[in-house]
# Entry
Amino acid sequence: MAGISYKCGISDEPLLGITIGDKFDEIVSLFPDNEALIVHHQNIRFTYRQLQKQVNDCAKALLTIGIKKGERVGIWSSNRYEWTVLQFATAKIGAILVNINPAYRIHELEYALNQSGCRMLVIADKFKTSNYERMIFELAPELAFAGVGRLHATI
# Structure
């Protein structure tokens, strides 16, 4: 079996040889007007076509700010529609989404960021009693003075 980089358990059928982004686009082409994402607490209802537009816009934005294939993008958020958009957008460009527990305190966030090697961190504004913006500024105070894409944090 030289040359095969994966093996499928007891099935004789191999895994699909396409990316998540390609499979997503295939589903969109088959069911463009079907509901794809419903997030009740945000009053969001997207069809596959609407979700694809959000995903493609996000993927373009990631590429525009310099995120490259294989780089890690962190998300520190509870369940929101933006989480799903970012998940598919990173998959489309070949970046790796790093999920950071929304309940993490500052020391846990610092550890996770140091271990994961995130090049970018997407945050929600808050979760329960956690104010993410305040916490991230406490962890990386130089963020207040850094230009866009120019943070060199010492965490």
Q: What stands out?
A: The two ends are 44 Å apart (CA to CA). The beta strands are 35-39, 44-47, 72-76, 96-100, 118-123, 126-127, 130-131. The helical segments are 20-30, 48-64, 81-93, 106-116, 132-139.
